[in-house]
């Protein structure tokens, strides 16, 4: 018999190696960026004064919602600020719940800096996608960025050997995408698709960068994606007809 760390084993068994699947390393104790984003969204929602099931309007909405003609005239901040506004209690409740579920998993694994970069990259890609889809109404909500986090989590699971569809993440993405196409709900599905694609591409970029042991490549890729999204949003806005919020 051969002494091992788990007790006495026969020589044949002692030669065998057991495969160990390691879970993702935890880099931080608290998802600070996730919490900060939720806090800002809640404060802005309270400041809007719209507490109904589905409402929009007021000076905050007018000056910070995503609206193509206003982006065309130079209100570029709307590409970011629209991601912190919501149109009703159910809208913000659903988005903040998903943001917490996804954010507290991802941020602890990939770190706050990388998480923040991925979030805002997906947000800008979502704004671009929303402007590609809609021309006649304002768009608000963190949905594009949240869909981006779904894409990031799917890539992170794949790189660690997990099937996103076996754990329900793939189904969650598909269900929410389908809901966006239901008539009458007035959902900016273009923002969902744009955010998801942006999150997937950004996460793939970081995966390649990590394999090359060049993390800066991932950040450079996010910067390039964000620049393309902003340039695309401005270009699309320039082709829109003039409407009013």
Automatic annotation (TrEMBL):
Keyword DNA repair: no
Keywords annotated in UniProt: Hydrolase, Membrane, Protease, Transmembrane, Transmembrane helix
Entry keyword RNA-binding: no
InterPro entries per the UniProt record, alphabetical: Peptidase_S54_rhomboid_dom, Rhomboid-like_sf, Rhomboid_protease_S54
GO molecular function, one term: serine-type endopeptidase activity
Chief location category: membrane
GO BP annotations, alphabetical order: proteolysis
Listed transmembrane segments: 33-51, 84-103, 115-132, 138-155, 167-185, 191-209, 216-236
Name assigned to this protein: Rhomboid family intramembrane serine protease
Species: Baekduia soli
Organism placement in taxonomy: Bacteria, Bacillati, Actinomycetota, Thermoleophilia, Solirubrobacterales
């Amino acid at each position: 018999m051969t002494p091992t760390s788990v007790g006495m084993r026969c020589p044949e068994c002692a030669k065998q190696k057991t495969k160990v699947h390691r879970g993702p390393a935890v880099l931080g104790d608290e998802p600070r960026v996730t919490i900060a984003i939720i806090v800002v969204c809640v404060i802005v929602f309270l400041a809007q004064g719209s507490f109904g099931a589905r409402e929009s309007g007021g000076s905050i909405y007018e000056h910070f919602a995503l609206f193509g003609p206003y982006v065309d005239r130079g209100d570029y901040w709307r590409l970011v600020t629209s991601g912190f506004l919501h149109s009703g209690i159910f809208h913000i409740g659903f988005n903040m719940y998903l943001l917490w579920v996804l954010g507290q998993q991802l941020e602890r694994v990939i770190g706050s800096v990388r998480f923040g970069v991925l979030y805002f990259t997906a947000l800008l890609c979502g704004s671009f996608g929303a402007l590609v889809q809609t021309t006649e109404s304002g768009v608000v909500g963190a949905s594009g960025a949240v869909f981006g986090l779904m894409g990031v989590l799917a890539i992170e699971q794949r790189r660690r050997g997990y099937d996103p569809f076996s754990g329900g993440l793939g189904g969650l993405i598909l269900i929410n995408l389908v809901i966006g196409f239901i008539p009458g709900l007035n959902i900016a599905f273009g923002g969902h698709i744009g955010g998801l694609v942006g999150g997937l591409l950004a996460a793939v970029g970081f995966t390649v960068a990590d394999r090359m042991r060049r993390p800066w490549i991932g950040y450079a890729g996010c910067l390039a994606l964000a620049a393309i999204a902003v340039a695309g949003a401005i270009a699309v806005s320039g082709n829109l007809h003039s409407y009013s919020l």
